[in-house]
Amino acid sequence: MEEYRLGELRHLLTTVFLSGFSEFLVKPVMTDVTVAAVCSGLNETCSLAVYLTGVEQVTVGLGTMVMMPVIGNLSDRYGIKTLLTLPMCLSILPPAILAYRRDTNFFYAFYITKILFDMVCQGTVDCLAHAYVAKNVCGRKRISMFGVLAGVRSISGVCATFSARLLPIASIFQYFLKARFGFNKNDFAELILLVTIIGSISQLFILPKLVSAIGERRVLSTGLLMDSVNAACLSVSWSAWVPYATTVLVPVTMFVMPSVCGIASRQVGPGEQGKVQGCISGVKSFSGVVAPFIYSPLTALFLSEKAPFYFPGFSLLCVTFSLMIGFFLSLLIRDVPSPSMNKAINNISREEA
Q1: For the chain, which residues score pLDDT lower than 70?
Q2: Which residue ranges does UniProt annotate as crossing the membrane (predicted)?
Q3: In terms of CB atoms within 10 Å, which end of the chain has fewer, N or C?
């Protein structure tokens, strides 16, 4: 395994940046465009918009749940750079449809096309980028590079926000912020700027030092704990300033996925990194299938007048419980030596024998 430096991965980091930049740049008006296309009049809380988001997440999740392990396996066989061509090409058409016109018919054309392509492409760039780093970077530097990848993606969100000035927060509970506090595009832009700026700084500079100090497992547990605190605060938001205040938790909550990728990558050799990272993305996609079945109807119910009791953020409270379960499970993770370490231990044992 080669000892890669940051500069030697500039081609990969450029790909991740441009992919993230284009993705974030497409999102600026999606909340309002969806509401305008499917909701009648000035109604900003119609259930159809919430359910369409849920259907998209379930369908795309089912597709990526199957495709991510396949793509990861193919990348081990045919090369990571070759497989990166697929998502970069297919992701062009859907935003081009929406750029042409934004009425209801064109919105549904965009909606269907995006679902079909995202079933193959969503998360592919991140998955293959993690596999490339895991294959070419060894030791403690690997988790640092995972943090750099996440930081570069966050920076792409910052740049896209400054370019568009209208970027909604990347969260399945955004129609929540709009319905609960009347968030408009400028509010979303301010919030995502805070999140991405703080997140990029923490992933680039804080994560490597924290991993060296307390280890990947403790970083993962801390991130999950802070994520649950964040969701709990949002669930009981009593004013529009609360989502802004919770951004102080962002530096820790963004450590979760780099830690997961780092822990998993150490358990296999360089020739299986695509498969492992693909499986992680597949599991993540599976959660994207299950969550909308539970949270989309729950969110729509408690934001409507038919709620059994007044608690607009009840679905976020349920998310808090899910994150707490993940936190307690993370405490059970044990350190397992990597294959290279096992090989070294076996060689020492033979020499002593």
Answers
A1: 1-7, 27-29, 32, 40-46, 139-140, 161-192, 238, 240, 335-353
A2: 83-100, 106-134, 155-176, 188-207, 244-264, 309-333
A3: C
- Contact indicator for 217, 330 with CB cutoff of 8 Å: yes
Please, are residues 143 and 262 in contact by the beta-carbon 8 Å criterion? yes
Q: Do the beta carbons of residue 71 and residue 273 sit within 8 Å?
A: no
In angstroms, rounded to a whole number, what is the distance separating the alpha carbons of residues 208 and 123? Answer: 23
Pick the CATH number of 6-336 from 3.10.20.90, 1.20.1250.20, 3.40.190.10, 2.40.160.60: 1.20.1250.20
**CB-CB contact of 150 with 203 (8 Å):** yes
Domain ranges of the chain: 6-336
Please say whether the beta carbons of 227 and 256 come within 8 A.
Answer: yes
